[in-house]
What does this fold into?
Amino acid sequence: MALYEMRKFVAPEFIFGVGARHRVAIYAKNMAAKRVLIVTDTGVINAGWVKDAVSDLDELGIESVIFSELTSNPKDHEVMAGADFYAEQECDVIVAIGGGSVIDCAKAIGIVHTNGRHILGFEGIDLVDLPGPPLICIPTTAGTAADISQFCIIMNTEERYKAAIISKTMVPDVALIDPETTTTLDKALTACTGMDALTHAIEAYVSTATSPIVEIHALKAISLIWSNLETAVMKPSQIEPRENMLLGTLQAGLAFSNASLGAVHAMAHSLGGYLDLPHGECNALLLDHVLRFNMVEGGERYFAIANAMGIDTRGMSVQECTKRVTQQIMDMRARLGIANKLSLVGVNSSDIPELATHAYTDACLVTNPRDASMADLKVLYGEAM
It folds into this structure.
């Protein structure tokens, strides 16, 4: 009998390091780009990162147009408008400069263009027939790892939830991961995106689809994020913590893109879609509750997570280890200034049935280590209130 289950591992080409973003024109040229669609948002434009890219592209004679009509938690109608703009402008390559919202929107614009269908028609796993046009990503947050993942999360505005599109066609062609771009992030966004990355690593490590390659990346990510997040928040211009946060995010992304996630993300997608809340904040509010729920199935794995967080687990029971890990996460959340109850971010008890309904059908729930019923999800939301 084989020791390991057969597993596939997918990762794009990526360049990591200060100055990586300036390779954008070389890659675009290699893709035979004549006219690039830059997908971004006003915050990233104001920070100056788009100007750099336009200048780099100009130098090699590549035209570019900018689409920035999008909001955090990208909406289905924004994607459709972006796809129309891409076609009108006769673009041939997409460059995404921004956080997860921007990159997910860029991925979505690409597949709408090549498949000629509404974005919500791709919801689910492996339902994208044709890959989008060539896509180059320059992430500006240390959080989502959308720049290297198989995931694309888009708001269904009519039903008020986040639709997960998971497909190998969602993996960008290249990611240019430059720590300098994260130095302009404000404290709140640094904290929330950092908690998102931590959740990616923890959920991938305990996922039912984990593998030895995933585990290496997940544990390293936990260690890097845990030991650098606070400094990145408190001393935003220091490049070393920013580098380590982005490296941790990358490793967490490699892990979850290949092992998927769990109940935290299923519940966070529903919550963020329903109330249009920051995704990382939703994860931070739910993580400790789901960890306690999963203890009976995934608890043995918490020892390695605790060790990666610098906790000495010698002589501890699974219950003690779980208590210690969750307490540390709650303490970190408090130090970062993130709310500790759903009621503080506008959730009412009457919202719980609706939230649980969408969480229950989210693709991320499939790989949660413990089966979660609709009733379980309602209890978890209730506990987080």
